[in-house]
Amino acid sequence: AVADADAMYQYDEVAQAGIQQQKPWVDVPHYFKNVKISALALLKMVVHARSGGTIEVMGLMQGKTDGDTIIIMDAFALPVEGTETRVNAQADAYEYMVQYAQTNKQVGRLENVVGWYHSHPGYGCWLSGIDVSTQMLNQQYQEPFLAVVIDPTRTVSAGKVEIGAFRTYPMDYKPPDEPPSEYQTIPLNKIEDFGVHYKQYYSLDITYFKSTLDSHLLDLLWNKYWVNTLSSSPLLGNRDYVAGQVSDLAEKLEQAETQLAHSGRIGGFFMPPQRKKEEESQLAKITRDSSKITVEQVHGLMSQVIKDILFNSVTS
Amino acid sequence: EHSLLRQISSLVRRLPAIDSTKFQDDFLMEYNDTLLMTYLATITKC
Amino acid sequence: MEVEIKQAELVEQFVVLARSARGRAAAELITHATSHPSLFAFSELLSLPHILELQGTEHAGSLELLRLFAHGTWTEYKNNIHELPPLQPQQELKLKQLTVMTLAETAKVLQYDLLMQQLDVSNVRELEDLLINDCMYAGIVRGKLDQRRRCFEVQFAAGRDLRPGQLENMISTLATWLGNTENLLLTIQEKIKWADSMSDIDRKHKKEVEDKAEELRKSI
Question: What Rg, from alpha-carbon coordinates, does chain C have?
């Protein structure tokens, strides 16, 4: 296992050049299905995303491909922000990217850039319209190329990294009906963007790997990790995020109520069944979102109650 | 073993980890916030 | 616990030496042990027969001193100064460090006034130097100095040697802790059972509703 874990870190330039020649992904829109991310790259991306707070940040990922798997070895931040508000934030950083890639080669880091990552603080992991067009562009000129999205806010609240890896389909490609991906709450101010584009891309399965050195270093941090875990509470760390979610929920309820009231005036029986279905599914989604928020709160409280009983109920 | 006894003594003396009125007030407020959210979610369900 | 790891080797050395030392040599050894900058544990020495033999001899004062370093404080030394041998500066400093450890065991927030009175320190600057340089850097306590509220918030204090009678107290505290933890575990298991049964009931209810709706649909 040790040899395998570390073998991943060897870069076979000839093999990679061969793959680049064959371009097996050209004819198969769904070619890449899996992503393997190194512990180092994951940590760097999550720390960078969290450092951005509520601002979207972005960076590039270096690695290689192995069959239908894209392997991310490392990642580096780009000096840009606000990916959602700019057409293509990467444009600002081209010079930086080129220099970084060249310098890397000079120091023997042969991996090429194989993708970009950016953060969606508080509104989940999916591709917006701008993201889809940026990724399509990258897949046209920089294959193999992957888009990774991280939600640092939900990472803290869920206690695990909220991350998604995506690839876009060619412009005129009609994808087969996808099985519904894991449900996630989309804030009202983003729902339009989410709804329009979600058929233009697909998500890949993500697994992680680490080297023996990573394992040793992470073991050394084990106590610190536990002290931080035991001494932090999502109830405290996530207050403004939860408040934002509840206010988003209230807006959605307002909107649903307006629509229901509106459809009530023109007489429910005239409403086509499809429309009725939509109203219900919208309300069902709101109910689901509110249950999700509450479940997270109750989990946070449960951990507080358990810690209180364990560590505060005994006086020495 | 004296060394082990000293370590246990050091650990046991750290209990309770935190025991102040301010903590109790905060804790109770968190409790009530969560109960309120649960109530809101139940109403939303209805 | 780093303190224990650091001093384990030292304790071993002194115990080996003490096994072959008698009388004056044993008294000298006690002076070395109570002067060594990194040693804060004395029970092992105190339980050795050659050391206990000093009782009733001309070196009984050294044995009393060792007992004081194992369990006592600076104030106790001052109260019994006539029956104990005079302290060298290193021993004085060590006894003050041990006093801080004892105070840190009893309270989580130590007022500067209490510390200055217990350690015979005349000003805050000297007290903070003692706490930072001789206690926190030595690893015997960890915490935060709050100048505004003039207090030292203790986050960790290495354990001192157990005084006679403390063992029972510690055992009962651990037993209580164990009991609480077991009760908590039982409560969690009950809650899990309750949640499972509620979700079964919910699922059954949902199925009944769907069956009824299906029947109605058929009948219509």
Answer: 29
Distance CA A94, CA A117 (A): 15
Q: CA B9, CA B14: separation in Å to the nearest integer? A: 9
Coil, strand or helix at C108:
coil
**What distances in angstroms separate CA A4 from CA A8, A37, A61, A209, A228, one per listed residue?**
7, 15, 22, 10, 31
| B38 in contact with A, Cβ within 8 Å | yes
- Confidence class for position A240, pLDDT limits 50, 70, 90: confident
The amino acid occupying position A27 is D
Query: Which ipTM was obtained for this model?
Result: 0.82
Split at pLDDT 50, 70, 90, the class of C134 is very high
How far apart (Å, rounded) are the C-alpha atoms in residues A78 and A100?
10
Mutual orientation of helices C166-219 and B2-12 as an angle, nearest 10°? 50
Chain C within 8 Å of A218 (Cβ-Cβ)?
Answer: no
What does pTM read for this prediction? 0.76
Chains A & B: contacts with CB separation below 8 Å: 58
Residues of B in contact with C39 (CB under 8 A): none
Which residues lie below 8 Å from residue B33, measured CB to CB, with a gap of 6+?
A235, A297
